[in-house]
Design goal:
This protein is of the alpha/beta class. Helices cover 63% and strands 6% of the residues.
Length: 522
């Protein structure tokens, strides 16, 4: 692979990234809304604060609230950089860093593929598979951690090729810290980094002092990057990690993430649910995560070739670590955190392995072609060209179909106008006519998006009933409740079905299936 090859890959990828980004006028869903909103706070000099509450796990005292008590800060920091570079351009500015990250993914994937095969054509095929990334494509240029995680994952596997152990240790420590600053489960990559040095040392005459030195360099470089964040958390919350984050271990349903008041989740409440429910939840997560493996990570058509590629390169130490990282991630997101994992955690975390899978898919296809060509007496060179081109063609068609369905079709554009920030802008006009005091909060299913639409404080719809709404309204000065079709928790469904059931919750209007209530607490 020449420098010209890499430059052309980058430029072509950048052009496509800009094209995809141009179809996105808003962040689109709560994770991305959160990073965009907190990125705005940083860019405006308001620090790590959030003018909304999207969960109650740390028993927040009020609004504004210290941000990133659950999610990690690096994605928000990247969004804020774009906003500072191009103030006044709103969400388009927040996308700048993610557009550049997407442009780097095929380049890193090509470098990784070439390091495995030394074949230019297979490296270029891998780059095209990364560029036309199937189900990931609509998410890579919005304000979320997908493109960041892919760049970090590909860079991690390339760093494993560094020959000087001291330099490798420093690079892996830095990358592990960036993983952790991107996602809480990114701490897994510190373990992978340490394991990688252990395996590399075990492959030659063992020297304990050398191994200890490498381990120390990883830890020091990791702490050099992440310590400021730990110190901030200690200063704000009294702990280096998210307060009450251990409650995530004891969920018995996804909606308990939004429980109020805080502190109701524990090992005791988890055990009370019964082993049948505990096991059932993990089988449920297993089914959904296997679906993610097939439909997202393997893009259906790539999965068998990825598996063949894994088998072909099974003795490669880089691949062994990648497979171990994948199984570790799968285990954590299926067994330890089944609800968070199945509802998007595995989809997010698995993105780190995608450059490796895209690098392996052409290797696997080449092996399949060789085997079939021998059986069917095909002309190997011609068959290889046809099937490799076909693999790219199918990836392009799949990616195009997904982008059309999610962003480009008239139906997709109409739906985008009837949800999220667009819907909330219409609702805010009605609420502002009732009360233009933006300090009086709204209780809603997507608080970050509501704040982006209105600059009004917002609270998450709790996992509770009408009495929980009144408790939240009293504590956090909430004056309005919004119940959206398809986004109502079980305890509030009776109110959604019968809006007149509670006299102190007064229905004032309905917009696109969303019912707007005034909350009277006096």
């Amino acid at each position: 692979m020449s420098k010209r090859d890499y430059l052309l890959i980058f430029l072509f990828s950048l052009a496509l990234a800009i094209g995809i980004a141009s179809t996105q006028s808003t962040s689109g869903y709560m994770d991305a809304d959160y990073y965009y909103a907190t990125g705005l706070q940083l860019a405006e000099g308001k620090g790590f604060t959030e003018p909304f509450l999207w969960n109650y796990l740390d028993d927040p005292s009020g609004i504004p609230h210290p941000s990133h008590a659950y999610w990690m800060p690096l994605t928000s920091i990247l969004a804020s950089v774009g906003i500072r570079i191009a103030p006044g351009f709103g969400f388009d500015a927040a996308q700048i860093a993610f557009i550049l990250l997407l442009a780097l993914i095929p380049l890193i994937t090509a470098a990784l593929a070439f390091s495995l095969t030394n074949k230019r054509d297979l490296a270029l095929i891998s780059a095209l598979l990364a560029l036309f990334s199937g189900y990931y494509a609509p998410f890579l240029t919005t304000t979320d951690s997908f493109s960041l995680y892919m760049v970090l994952g590909g860079s991690f596997f390339l760093a494993l090729k560094i020959r000087k152990n001291w330099l490798k240790a420093i690079a892996l420590g830095f990358l592990a810290a960036l993983f952790h600053l991107s996602r809480a489960d990114g701490a897994i990559w510190l373990i992978i980094a340490l394991l990688s040095l252990f395996t590399s040392h075990s492959s030659r005459p063992f020297k304990f002092s050398s191994l200890l030195s490498s381990f120390s360099l990883i830890i020091i470089s990791y702490l050099a990057i992440i310590s400021p964040w730990f110190l901030r958390n200690i200063n704000i919350f009294g702990t280096p990690l998210a307060p009450n984050g251990d409650q995530m271990l004891w969920l018995t349903s996804y909606n308990q993430l939004f429980s109020y008041p805080a502190g109701n989740l524990s090992s005791a409440t988890w055990l009370v649910s019964g082993w049948d429910e505990i096991v059932k939840a993990r089988f449920w997560a297993l089914k959904l995560n296997l679906g993610t493996v097939l439909g997202v990570q393997g893009a259906v058509i790539l999965l068998p070739f990825i598996i063949l590629g894994v088998w072909r390169e099974r003795k490669n130490q880089v691949l062994s670590l990648g497979v171990f990282a994948w199984f570790t991630t799968f285990f954590v997101m299926t067994i330890i955190f089944p609800f968070a994992g199945a509802r998007g955690g595995f989809f997010h975390s698995g993105a780190a392995l995608q450059p490796l899978w895209w690098a392996l898919a052409p290797i696997g296809l080449e092996q399949a072609i060789k085997w079939i060509a021998k059986k069917r007496r095909w002309r190997l060179r011609e068959a290889r060209q046809v099937f490799l081109a076909g693999l790219v063609g199918m990836s392009i068609l799949l990616t195009g179909a997904i982008l059309w369905r999610r962003a480009l079709s008239p139906t997709a554009r109409e739906q985008a106008q009837n949800k999220g920030v667009s819907l909330y802008s219409s609702i805010e006009e009605i609420i502002a006519a009732e009360n233009d005091n933006v300090g009086q909060a709204v209780i809603v299913s997507n608080p970050p998006a509501y704040f982006l639409a209105s600059n009004r404080y917002a609270l998450a719809l709790p996992d509770g009933d009408v009495e929980t709404i009144f408790a939240l309204a009293t504590r956090y000065d909430a004056g309005f409740l919004i119940l959206e079709e398809g986004g109502v928790t079980e305890g509030l469904m009776p109110l959604f079905d019968d809006p007149k059931m509670e006299e102190n919750l007064i229905l004032i209007e309905e917009v696109e299936g969303a019912k707007i209530f005034v909350i009277e607490t006096e």
